[in-house]
Amino acid sequence: xxxxAWSSAFSHTTREADEEGGLSRVLSPCIxxxxxxxxxxxxxxxxxxAAAGFTRIEFWTVRDRDVTELExxxxxxxxxxxxxxxxPTGQLVDPSTHAEFLAGVERSSALASRLNAKNLIVVxxxxxxxxxxxxxxxxxxxxxxxxxxxxSQAGIGLLLEPLNSRVDHQGHYxxxxxxxxxxxxxxxxxxxxxxxxxxxSIVMDEDPGQVxxxxxxxxxxxxxxxxxxxxxxxxxxxxxxxxLVALGSAGYSGPLGxxxxxxxxxESSLTFIREVVEGEEA
Length: 282
Hints:
The chain is of the alpha/beta class and 282 residues long. The chain has a single domain, classed as Divalent-metal-dependent TIM barrel enzymes (TIM Barrel). Helices cover 38% and strands 13% of the residues.
């Protein structure tokens, strides 16, 4: 792969730069899948990721995991946790679940502070059959309005993530980036932003450049994986140079979350995406 305009739009380093100026551009591996080679213990994945040069990691949940050991690994390696899922995930489309969701955001925000995490991921839950879609949309907005100050008080962001309803999450309500951005604009709180998962978006036949046009300031984080298969970039049909340039053109300048299932050993699975973001010859 030849050098591209992407190298000027998104210059990657594996060590963070000038985070205060918002200029940090790093890869953030999801250790649910990456560095899990051979069934490696969860906390050990933190050490291996840090040894590979990563200053950010992310994961889904801490359920059934040794949080004390995880905290120890994070502190020892000085990594930042980009995000993890607020628990319980809740069913934001259903107002009767909001009290439990808000209590979970409060607990998860406190845990995020312990784990040097910046954000909590929240999702809509499955669509409610027979309930008007506007009512479900409004319920999500209401839950986020109530949750935003809870997270914000702890210095934590909330990332609303749409999920594809065609392959991985059939029945999920929020499967549209456009609707997610509309919700974020309605909530209008700086703590609430979009987690744009390019894999989910492309599975839903969205064009990243179109759905994110002018919305970069509302994007708090991005996940990537190739389509089809959800494996590492370079294994599917996504034009990564084009799509990453689209992210930069939309105004996004934050980390790229690597949320893919490696089809081979983790380190070798990283080669392609590193070459793309560094603009090096492949």
